[in-house]
Specification:
Helix content is 37%, strand content 21%. It contains nine helices and ten strands. A hairpin with a 2-residue loop joins strand 8 and strand 9. The longest helix is centred in the first third of the chain and has 20 residues. The radius of gyration is 22 Å and the shape is globular.
């Protein structure tokens, strides 16, 4: 028995029900992790949180001891500025979309479950490299774990029934990333690219001397640009000159950058 959490949201109790009905240790671990994420953080929930974390640690220890945690180690190293997963039902155009957006050449077929392992490609967006990963329609836990750690999810669909099914899949695997629905057969590829980019919350700025594009989080300041170029630029920083449209701005380290800024650091 454990303490009833105070003012827990409905998502917590849904995860709790999934924990109670889970048939495998993997499912129990996922449900318990979701319960911990959904538990409100305040003084009244401290004991309940401690109990949940203790039970989770025990489950993971048991999984490791019995070899049941191997599937949770599946992962793909992030390359580029963001990692985007493509998820869809079989024959929904995932592989075709990946081939159109990247340099990847995945197997494309009318047969079901053509993709049996994640397929990877790099998408170029105005000079910024983004990693796209196609998740197999088998929806195995180890592959869905990759999706849970990604930045954005692209959901391929053919009709409204597909959308409903995909929403259920996201819910059952506790995937809460920002996502966009795409119909690969109808939607414009350039609009798909823009839609993915808009969900990432990034801006593109440029180094004046080289013209090299750099992706930064929206709201970033000059300091973050300087650190990415070279750490000594911050230590020896005097000022920055920013070309923004027709404006020339002299700025300090805490000046907020905007998309399209061209920056030169003076040290």
């Amino acid at each position: 028995m454990y303490l009833m959490p105070v003012n827990a949201p409905a998502e917590y109790f849904k995860a709790e029900e999934r924990f109670k009905s889970a048939r495998t240790r993997e499912e129990k671990i996922l449900a318990m992790e979701e319960m911990i994420r959904m538990l409100p953080r305040h003084h009244g929930s401290e004991k309940a949180l401690a109990q949940l974390k203790s039970r989770l640690a025990k489950l993971k220890k048991e999984a490791t001891a019995k070899g049941g945690g191997a599937s949770r180690k599946e992962g793909i190293a992030k390359e580029g500025e963001a990692q985007i997963c493509i998820i869809g039902l079989t024959n929904s155009g995932k592989s075709w979309l990946l081939s159109k957006l990247t340099n990847s050449k995945p197997a494309v077929s009318e047969n079901t479950y053509t993709t049996t392992r994640p397929a990877i490609g790099m998408m170029d967006y105005n000079g910024i490299k983004l990693q796209l990963i196609e998740i197999p329609s088998t929806f195995l836990p180890e592959y869905m774990g990759i999706a849970r750690n990604s930045d954005v999810i692209v959901l391929t669909y053919r009709n409204d029934d597909d959308k409903q099914h995909l929403n259920e899949i996201l819910e059952s695997h506790y995937i809460r990333q920002k996502h966009v629905f795409v119909n690969p057969w109808k939607d414009d590829m350039q609009q798909i690219r823009k839609g993915i980019w808009s969900l990432l919350g990034l801006i593109i700025v440029y180094a004046k001397k080289t013209g090299t594009p750099m992706a930064l989080k929206t709201g970033s300041v000059v300091r973050e640009f300087a650190e990415r170029v070279h750490k000594d630029f911050v230590k020896n920083f005097r000022f920055a000159r920013i070309m923004r449209g027709n404006k020339l701005i002299q700025a300090g380290l805490n000046y907020k950058l905007e998309d399209g800024d061209v920056i030169e650091i003076y040290a």
